[in-house]
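Interim report, section 4.2 (structural modelling).
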Amino acid sequence: MNVPAATRAIVVARIRKLWPVLLVSVAAALFFGWLYQNAIAGRQAGGEVNLGAPDAWLLLPTLFTTAIAVAVAFACTSHANRDPFALVEDAAPLFGRERARANAIIPVTIALAAAAAQYAGARLSPHYATPPTFFLFNAIAAIAAMLVALSIPLRDGAARILYALLACGSTLICTVVALAVIGFTNGVAAAKAGLAYYPNFNDLWGGVAEASFAALIGFIALRQYGEALARYDPLPPANE
Amino acid sequence: MAILEMRRASFARGRTNIVAPISLQLEEGGTLHWRCELAQAGRVLARMAAGIVKCTAGSVFIGDYDPKIQPVQVKRLVGFIPHPPPSNPFDSPQAYFAYRSDLWNLQCASAVERGMRIFLALHAQPPNLALAVSGALLHEPKLLVAENLEAELFDELANLRGAAALFATR
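Predicted structure of the assembly:
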């Protein structure tokens, strides 16, 4: 594959900038996966949670991955102020969409690594019971969340919070779409499906539906990020 | 022929006017050291002249290109020196020049050689500034733009820039 030199340069720059974030994210996700698996086993034993019944608590892994995506986006917020890479890239003859694609590669890789680390952490737990497909669905949702969260550094104030909430919303919608399709294809009314099918997450059509929905969200988010980058005015900080 | 032309160009963020309407013209190969009342205005004006920040009113033309419509063509013509110059994020100046040559789609080996030649010629300057100047001159721009540049440095840059026009704020 012929990767453009500018894309390669931006990817290398992002690796140099974000590798500590990658390490912290993977470590946190590994620990969370292990802790979550133990905690859910404890709740089951205490009769507090029934894996066959709706329980918002079961969405925690997806929300955790989204939180990592938002944290990665905030780690990129030095954009155009003191970030030596951003100052050079703002002056470089690149289209917004080129920069958007190149900028997205490493954050999305971090989000996927966090989802994979959650699975690894869960497997390390002696109480491991969650189907691996769930973690695959989690990873698909993480891509959509990360692509939405990429716009956070380009926004200020309330708009920044709104984008963080949109990232959370996109992962939840992706998961709900998958669950609804699982319910439908298993012969259960979609309305009743919800989280009830959580333990039976080995469903091809649920995965296909979620991946399609995540691809749609991701495509729109990446296009929008490219447009925002093209229009963005990187002002110097007023207090310097 | 003018390499940089501003016609009542201004920049505002919300209700705050950062750069008041400015008209100026810089010919190819010429120099212009523009004085601004506030440091922030000087920095934003320099970014407007480099096509990085788009004016909110009036017009800016860089080599007959409008940065709002043809930003990529504009940025090929311009070398930009930020203030304060950022530290080198790479382990060596060569790696920094290779990174820049990839972004500008230059032939890497010759760009690194050219960058090192300019960098070594600036040995009397602080390393960060020398790196920023040599990086900005790497793709042989037609217009060199510097943010908030002191008078002595302006003179030194005027000698180093080759055929490029020089616009700086102070």
